[in-house]
Amino acid sequence: MRLSEQEIINAICLHMAERKRLQPNQIEVEMMWDEDYGFSAEVLAEGRSQIIIAANILEAIERYLLTQQNVRVFRDQIHLQLEEEIVADINV
């Protein structure tokens, strides 16, 4: 199974909205990749910017797959990849 960058962003929006008690459309996400630091995302909510690391992204993907697609996966099954966009390959 593969999630596109937009699906990863949706997962982060849903996850952060739940944690911050906001609506998902109140969250903006920009995915990032850095040679030294790897994958991360900038999350903008209520005028505040926060950088989340790969572990947070994987947590959001886990939760998204469970709540939206009824698929239970663990972090070691999710692999973020940089192609033309950032994607997540999931071994199910």
UniProtKB/TrEMBL annotation:
* Protein name, entry field: YxcD family protein
Taxonomy, superkingdom: Bacteria
- InterPro entries recorded for this chain? Uncharacterised_YxcD
Checking Pfam families in the record gives: DUF2653
